[in-house]
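Input sequence (171 aa), recorded before submission:
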Amino acid sequence: MIILSLVALTACGSRQDTADRDTNLRQLRNASGAPEEFSIVPAKPLQAPESLTALPEPTPGGSNRTDQTPLKDAVAALGGAPSRLDAREGIGAGDQALVARASRFGRDQNIRVELAEADQAFRERRSFFNWRLIPEDTYNRIYRNQALDPYATLDAARRAGARTPSAPPEE
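Predicted structure, token format:
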């Protein structure tokens, strides 16, 4: 009787982790139904140009003068150069040596798609018979066995003679 009531109870519910499985692993949804105050961003004020002939050509999918640029605004407020955040073609000068070293045995241009497909298949295999009465973070539950213990890794590096920065004490 208890098993039958549990089956009936779970049949009435819905799984939130299957809706946006590959884009929202952390379940950052607003379940209350109220508007999310952090997703409402006011647009920059409209400005009339001196000459309407000086307007740039519209680019479909491109940026707009009134689009919000919070990262650039933060960099400018802290005294940096917001133009350094602009997308550039190719690999930046600071990263060329790193990319050359990492790709010395070749690299797959389609690696992100392959990893996304493999990750999706892994999460589907892990969640096949894995249901909970109490909601839990899907990401942490599925990848729990693959997480590194930072203190064990730190101790292993120290035993191997590597110089390591200080770390906070274990809780």
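Checked by second reader. The longest helix spans residues 111-126.
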